[in-house]
Amino acid sequence: MRITIRDIQGIKENGKRIAMLTAYDYPTARIIDEAGIPLILVGDSLGQVVLGYDSTIPVTMDEMLHHLKAVTRGAKNSLVVADLPFMSYQINIEQALINASRCIKEGLAHAVKLEGGKELVPTIKKLITSGIPVFGHIGLKPQSINVTGGYQIQGQNNIEATELLDDAKALEEAGVSGIILELIPSKLAKKITESISIPTIGIGAGPYCDGQIQVWHDILGLYPNFVPKHTRQFVDLQSIINKALTNYIENVKNGQFPNDSEFIE
């Protein structure tokens, strides 16, 4: 049975934690869905981990929709959230509504995610009144790294911390279904989580959030030379894949593959 926004809210209200992962293609979404992960984010992080860009900024709506469609075909139970990429919602409310509706109608997502705080309240309200659930994203905003000067921890001083708390409350009042808290101090994340009634999902925000989100490639160890502090590699999959490839090469070279049972006379 499909997870709903109400189910996600219920997890918080029952004092349980929410596991969320990114996915960018059909087989990954299928595996995540079958494992019982309730929330999948088709993140614009696909720009870096799938498309090889240096940041999320170059990702286009067409690229997002291409990957989103694959994920929603694979996820039968998980609630799928789609990132709106850079400059697909910032110009005006009409643009945001058009692009968000494409994620729902064409991509079959169940919600969209926007980076920003109280400045996005009018946009968020319009999306929600149009029937599009929204997740917020505050703290480090990867689409704004040219402004912030890179991937820096946010909310470390009292002024920034107060602004982030105000943003979270404004997003809740606007009607978002949950908020991603990225790269902020754990004490601040705890304060935000306790100050709002909707779920908080942390990435690099410590253990006090209502849930955690990680990038699929990070937890599987597919980028062993880049391991952010907030990431845990639950398996060294690259080594396993490398071993499988080495075995495949050797079996082809020495004629052991294919064997008699693996071809038709």
* Rg (C-alpha, Å): 20 Å
N-to-C CA distance: 46 Å
Main beta sheet strand tally, sense and closure: 8 strands, parallel, barrel
Number of DSSP helical runs: 11
**Strand order across the biggest sheet?**
1-2-3-4-5-6-7-8
CATH-defined topology of the largest domain: TIM Barrel
> Which CATH-level-2 architecture of the largest domain?
Alpha-Beta Barrel
Name the helix and strand elements from N-terminus to C-terminus, one letter apiece.
HEHEHHEHEHEHHEHEEHH
Give the tally of structural domains. Answer: 2
Helix percent reads 40-55%
Count of extended strands: 8
Can you identify the CATH class of the largest domain?
Answer: Alpha Beta
Structural class: alpha/beta
| Global outline | globular
What's the gist of this structure?
This protein has 265 residues and is of the alpha/beta class. 42% of the residues lie in helices and 14% in strands.
Describe this structure in words.
Helix 2 crosses helix 4. The chain has an eight-stranded parallel β-barrel with strand order 1-2-3-4-5-6-7-8, surrounded by seven helices. With 265 residues, the chain is α/β, with parallel strands linked by helices. It is globular, with a radius of gyration of 20 Å. It is built from eleven helices and eight strands. It has two domains: 230 residues, Phosphoenolpyruvate-binding domains (TIM Barrel), CATH 3.20.20; 29 residues, no CATH class. It is 42% helix and 14% strand.
